[in-house]
Design brief:
Layout lengths: L5 H20 L8 H7 L5 E7 L2 E6 L12 E6 L5 H8 L5 E6 L2 E6 L2 H13 L6 E6 L2 E7 L3 E8 L2 E2 L3 H31 L6 H15 L1
Antiparallel strand pairs: 1-5, 2-3, 2-4, 4-8, 5-7, 6-7, 8-9
Helix pairs in contact: 3-5, 5-6
C-alpha cells in the first residue's frame, strides 16, 4: 500500500481541516463529534473527511430502501433525542413516512497502512463492527468507522398512521442514546491509543453501557 503521496496527503489534510473549521463556524458540524474530529486532525498521519455522531430522521418514502434512489426525501433530522410532538408535526402532511435512526459514522484518511488498520481495529473493538478500509489513492487510505445502531419504523402508509408516534419516538430516542454511548467509547479508545490520553478501559465503558441499556428498558 505505497500508493499514498505524502505531499498530496498533506495538501488534502489542510483542505479538509480548513473546511471543518469553516463549517464549524457556520454551525454545520455536529457538535457532539467536533472535539473528536479536531483531536484526530492533530495526528500527523490522520485527517477526517466527514462524520455524524448519530441521528434520528423523518423521511418521506414508501420504503427505506428508497434512500439510495428516487422516491426518498429527508424531511427532518435531529442529532439528539427528540420530543414526539416534533416528529408528529414533521409527518403530519406526509402520505408515507418513516422514522429512522442511524449510529455514528466517521470517515478518515490515513497516511499509511499501519495507521489505517489501527483505526479499523479500534473501530471494531468498540462495537463499530462494519468498520473497514473503503478506498485508497494518493491522498490517503480511507477508513469508514460505522456504528451498528439502526432502526427503521414505518409511521404512515398511503396517508394512514401505521405506528403510534410516541411509541416509535421512544424507541428511536433509546436507540440514539446507545449509539451516542458507543461513540463516546470509540472516542475514549482513540484518545487513549493514538494520543496517550487517560481514559476508561473498554471493560469499564462496556459496564456503563450495559447499565444505561438496562435503565432505558
Amino acid at each position: 500500500m505505497g500508493v499514498v503521496d505524502r505531499r498530496v496527503f498533506e495538501a488534502r489534510k489542510k483542505a479538509f481541516v480548513d473546511r471543518l473549521e469553516r463549517e464549524a463556524l457556520q454551525e454545520r458540524v455536529d457538535g457532539d463529534v467536533l472535539p473528536l474530529l479536531r483531536l484526530l486532525n492533530q495526528h500527523p498521519d490522520i485527517y477526517t473527511t466527514s462524520s455524524c455522531s448519530g441521528r434520528i430522521m423523518v423521511a418521506e418514502a414508501v420504503r427505506p430502501s428508497y434512500s439510495k434512489g428516487r422516491g426518498f426525501r429527508p424531511v427532518a433530522r435531529w442529532h439528539h433525542p427528540v420530543p414526539s410532538e416534533l416528529v408528529a408535526e414533521a409527518v403530519a402532511q406526509l402520505d408515507n413516512a418513516w422514522l429512522m435512526v442511524r449510529g455514528a459514522i466517521l470517515h478518515l484518511a490515513a497516511a499509511d497502512a499501519k495507521t489505517a488498520y489501527r483505526l479499523v481495529e479500534i473501530g471494531r473493538g468498540t462495537g463499530h463492527k462494519h468498520s473497514g478500509i473503503i478506498a485508497m489513492n494518493r491522498g490517503g487510505i480511507f477508513v469508514e468507522i460505522l456504528g451498528e445502531e439502526r432502526l427503521d419504523i414505518p409511521l404512515k402508509r398511503n396517508g394512514a398512521a401505521v405506528t403510534d408516534v410516541a411509541v416509535a419516538v421512544d424507541m428511536a430516542n433509546k436507540t440514539l442514546v446507545l449509539a451516542k454511548l458507543r461513540l463516546y467509547w470509540l472516542a475514549a479508545r482513540l484518545e487513549a491509543e493514538l494520543f496517550g490520553v487517560d481514559a476508561p478501559t473498554s471493560e469499564e465503558i462496556r459496564r456503563a453501557i450495559r447499565r444505561a441499556a438496562s435503565c432505558l428498558g
